[in-house]
Design brief:
single chain; alpha+beta; Jelly Rolls; 3-stranded antiparallel beta sheet; globular
């Protein structure tokens, strides 16, 4: 395996880094209290990846088993206990635990514990997941056709 093709052709480098303090408020707070921080979006990375911090309250639940056709998804637990499904079994993931799900890989996650939990989600290549996070809590009010269109648009395919 080799490095990707050269994308920056300058000779001296440039000032282009982006800093985000830890106390920056989340961009999204769901009706259930989950806070999502947009650390690096598809727009800010030029489509290379998307990185989000998800802070879940106790008993927050989570999505059922699904897969993506265009993106991989990676989970890194920052704090608490998150139940992660790797396509074969559920594991009680704790601080420092990591799960990589390749494109097409079955997965799910939940916070069923009595304590809050926090994790990083990495999508690669980048995809516009912000709209998904912002609207997924409204799918119950959608028609079956609208719901199917929403999940298709956001590369989410349910298995149950």
């Amino acid at each position: 395996m080799s490095y990707p093709e050269v994308r920056y052709r300058g000779e001296t480098g440039e000032v282009s880094a982006s800093y985000r303090p830890a106390d920056t408020p989340p961009e999204l707070v769901s009706p259930g209290g989950t806070r999502t921080h947009y650390l690096a979006t598809t727009a800010s990375t030029g489509g290379e990846f998307g990185l989000y911090r998800v802070d879940m309250p106790a008993k927050a639940g989570g999505p059922s088993t699904h897969f993506h056709r265009t993106i991989s998804e990676t989970f890194f637990v920052l704090d608490g206990t998150v139940r992660l499904y790797d396509g074969e079994r559920w594991v009680e993931a704790e601080k420092g635990d990591f799960l990589y799900v390749p494109t097409g890989g079955l997965h799910a996650f939940r916070n069923d514990s009595d304590d809050p939990a926090s994790m990083l989600l990495l999508f690669a290549p980048g995809a516009p997941r912000e709209e998904y996070f912002e609207k997924v809590s409204t799918v119950a009010g959608m028609t079956e056709e609208e719901r199917a269109e929403f999940f298709l648009k956001h590369d989410t395919y349910w298995t149950d």
